[in-house]
Amino acid sequence: MTLITCTKNKTQPQHLAQSSNLDSPPSSIQSQEKILTGDRATGALHLGHYVGSLQQRVQLQHQYQQTILVADMQGLTDNGHNPGKVSSNILNVVADYLAVGIDPNLTTICLQSAVPALAELSMYYANLVSISRLERNPTVKSEIQSKAFGRSIPAGFLTYPISQAADITAFGATLIPVGDDQLPMIEQTNEIVRKVNGIAGTPILRECKPLLSHVSRLPSTDGKSKMSKSMGNAILLSASDKDIRQAVRAMYTDPNHLRVEDPGQVEGNVVFTYLDAFCTDKAYVEALKTQYRAGGLGDGKTKAILESCLQEVIRPIRDRREELMADKAQLVAILKAGTEKARDDSSDVLNNVKSAFGLNLF
Ligand code: TRP
Questions:
Q1: Residue whose CA lies nearest to ligand 1 atom number 3
Q2: Per DSSP, what are the bridge partners of residue 71?
Q3: Where are the alpha helices (DSSP H) in 176-298?
Q4: Residue 257 domain flag
Q5: What spacing in Å lies between the alpha carbon of 74 and ligand 1's midpoint?
Q6: Mind listing the pLDDT tens digit of every residue in the chain (362 residues)?
Q7: For ligand 1, what atom is nearest to the CA of residue 177?
Q8: How far apart are CA 235 and CA 238, in angstroms?
């Protein structure tokens, strides 16, 4: 069997109802839909982000006005006593964006903490949301359990869905590319939108809908959970060839597949899940699966195939990222320019919301 070369898997967004010509220049963007996404700046981004959302964002920027937030304030909601984890990762995240092909000429990349309207809107919205409603948010609920805050849940953490509603509404965003764990955030945002519009007596805020990626979230390399920055089981976009090799070698396969000639199970076998996600030659992956199921294909071999495939995906991203990180001043300048635009873009919504509450004396 020969090693095939796997090129980048092109992720197609699940529904692109308004999608037009992928190649149309940004000046011809006609869609009224606006996109907003973000990432907590708590670590460099990984392959899970790449297949789950970054590839999609690269495509969407040609079709819609897109804003991407480096969510540093949200990163602090569970790192208030360890702020270095957030501040030290801001440029990492910006470099990751640019390295995968998010283009600052097409996408507004901005820093959440430097757009005051976001914090201000959060304070107004907070008056329309009850503590019990926040406690019922399933995502927040499960995060609170897994983070073991005990009785010391930071108020900022409990209320981060409010801040996320501020992020979304500030830019008039209507389409939010998210994983299914973020659906409760969208629901809560729309509740806030309806309340504000009710108070204003006119629809000053737009409701939003999720744009779900058809790619389900990548499992962690140990197969026990989803790939996550905080769990140390992720393959970063900056991973070296050696990091990739080690991660793939340690990957969970089929524990009952002891000898090469044994029939093996493909379902739940992380190596095959990753081959499905990253290897573009689908027929080849199917042939491997058939052979693995029948017996006669060893884990060493499947892992070697995956390793070369992942190296091909990551190497160009990593190289580009290294170049970008070598000029931090340029990264800061890009982020600053995007942030200034974001300040402009959000000022009308803030004024309208303040007016809805009658706070427009001057
Ligand atoms: N919650 C997202 C994350 O954990 C980050 C985020 C902040 C976000 N504001 C947002 C996502 C608004 C979508 C829309 O990475």
A1: 39
A2: 40
A3: 183-200, 241-249, 270-278, 282-294
A4: yes
A5: 8
A6: 334 444 434 443 333 333 333 344 455 566 789 999 999 999 999 999 998 889 999 999 999 999 999 999 999 999 999 999 999 999 999 999 999 999 999 999 999 999 999 999 999 999 999 999 999 999 999 999 888 888 899 999 999 999 999 999 999 999 999 877 889 999 999 999 999 999 999 999 999 999 987 666 788 888 877 777 666 678 999 999 999 999 999 999 999 888 999 999 999 899 999 999 999 899 999 999 999 999 999 999 999 999 999 999 999 999 999 999 999 999 999 999 999 999 999 999 999 999 999 999 99
A7: 13
A8: 8
| 289 alpha carbon, distance to own chain's centre | 30
- Specify whether 45 is located in the same domain as 124: yes
Q: Are residues 43 and 138 in the same domain?
A: yes
Q: How is the beta sheet containing 209-212 ordered, strand by strand?
A: 107-111, 65-71, 34-40, 175-178, 209-212
Residue with tokens 């199970």: 265
CA angle 174, 175, 181 (to 5 degrees): 125
* Domain containing residue 179: CATH number: 3.40.50.620
Closest C-alpha residue for ligand 1 atom 6: 38
Reduced DSSP (H G I as helix, E B as strand, rest coil) percent helix, strand, coil of the chain, to 5: 55, 10, 35
Tell me, using a 6 A CB cutoff, whether residue 118 lines ligand 1.
no
144 with 192: CB under 8 angstroms?
no
Q: What ligand 1 atom has the least distance to the C-alpha of 182? A: 1
Residues 335 and 279 in one domain: no
CATH code for the domain of 268: 1.10.240.10
Atom of ligand 1 nearest to the CA of 178: 13
> How many domains is the chain partitioned into structurally?
2
**Rounded CA gap, 299 and 251, in Å?**
10
Residues 265 and 313 grouped into a single domain: yes
Are 213 and 264 part of one and the same domain? no
186 lines ligand 1 (CB under 6 A): no
**Residue 304 sits in the same domain as residue 337:** no
Q: 273: domain range? A: 241-321
Domain identity same for 308 and 178: no
Same domain, 38 and 162: yes
Q: What is the pTM of this model?
A: 0.89
